[in-house]
Amino acid sequence: MDVYGGSFAVVCIAIAECIGLMWIYGLNKFCTDLEFMLGSRPGIYWQVTWSACAPILLAVSQNIAVQHHHAGRIRLKTLAACGRVERPSDSQGGKSRRSRLLSDTGSIHTLLG
How far apart, in whole angstroms, are the C-alpha atoms of residue 111 and residue 113? Predict the structure, then answer.
């Protein structure tokens, strides 16, 4: 969940799915449907996991990930404002690695050839 934005939406959809299925449709109806399809009713472990543990753990982990992401961005901005973070272009005289490589060897064709 560090750089891919789709994971936030997926976790939100999973939380909504757990809440919608277990709390709105109902745990008893869901277990009755499973009993009809599989021939046996799910145990108490699965009922507690589906109705309480899964939505709570998903929400907590999502909250922690969002807070960690924002805290990291704030720390980086603070360090940059204090001048403690060096951008890669500043440390090499304004040249990127590719431009240094090209200037050192003459051209990209000498590297490939």
Answer: 6
Q: Per-residue pLDDT for 51 more than 80?
A: yes
Query: How does DSSP assign the chain, residue by residue?
Result: --S-THHHHHHHHHHHHHHIIIIIIIHHHHHHHHHHHHSSPPPHHHHHIIIIIHHHHHHHHHHHHHHHHHHHHHHHHHHHHHT----HHHHTTT--HHHHHHHHHS-HHHHH-
Return the domain boundaries, the chain.
6-82
Residues in the chain: 113
pTM comes to 0.52
